[in-house]
Amino acid sequence: MASSQQGERKIPLERGTSEPVEAAAATSPGAWHASSSMEASSVVSSPMRWPSVPVITKRPGCQILERFNDSAMEDAYEDLKMKYRAKRERQLKLVTLDPHVPRSCMGNQNLLPVRDSSTKTILEGAKVVISLSSYVDGTLMARSSGFFINWDEESKVCTVLTSARLICSKYSSMDQWLGSDEYSPDATVYAHLLDKDETTVPAALLHYDRHFNIALFKVDVDSCAKIPSFSSEVTCGQDIFALGRDDYLNLTINHGRVQFKGPSMFERHYYMYTGFMTGQSGIGGPIINFNGQVLGMTNVLGMGFIPSSVILHCLDMWKKFGYIPRLHIGMKLSAMKFLDPIHVEKISRKCNIDSGLIVKEVSYGSNAEKRGVRAGDIIQSMN
What we know:
Thrombin, subunit H, six-stranded antiparallel beta sheet, Peptidase_S1_PA, PDZ domain-containing protein, serine-type endopeptidase activity, Peptidase_S1_PA_chymotrypsin
């Protein structure tokens, strides 16, 4: 590397090169590959090199670091290190070299056989998945995901479906049947779009429903990707992906299977479950199958989601009536199919029934109670 002859000035070198610092600096342009605005640069950039301290070779295979014996050489060494760090910092601002992008489930070995096809499906579906944030008196209340379900080309208005938790200001109880959660429909809501500049635009509330925990907003969008179709066929054990956006607009991807279980007595009847946990920012994102069809929407912290059959029914009533009416049956029910087969077999032997809904609780004064329905009964059919 540097000469070891006595009395000769030692010049710090850049690691990986035999050129002195001054020579390397003279041939290395000051411009870098891309600017902070992510625009490509046509200026040639030198490779990244960490400066190395000169060494003295005492004998073959034995080298020692040369101590700086003048301030000019030490200043040159420190200056080169600062230039290296500054250039590296600029490079890491490029989206192509961003080291902070989170990893998804797509590295799972179980997904290798479908990695290419499912990645294509996910990237297509991600085009309509956005992030939303709500504010009350200028203070951030919640942030969640949402997705476009309709776009009017003439008015340039998109309809966004998300969870009503976006505007829920207080969660009072784990028992969702109490209906004690508090909502702020007048909250200021913004949609964070996916264009190059990550534009933020106001989102106007169209409707929200406390029971089904869904909300609809309208957003002005100049253009929109292909709106995904809904599939009402959701079966237990089916492979699914859940898409969402984190606080930095990074896409979140979770993979699992629809769980073979029903809601507890504290949860809504319409819930179905995934095999993974969903955080606050992912709530409101779509559940899709391997064909990209929407099977539901995550709408609670944890593993619960609302299936597409319920969503479609709610959307249909909202279009017809401008609101979502709901009949109260006055009962809490549990499906027999979610019981262990041993329990199902015992009920079948004792009652000659192998499918239906088990009545867990009957509301006092309800029509069901007046008609003689009691806890422990099995409902085989309705109407």
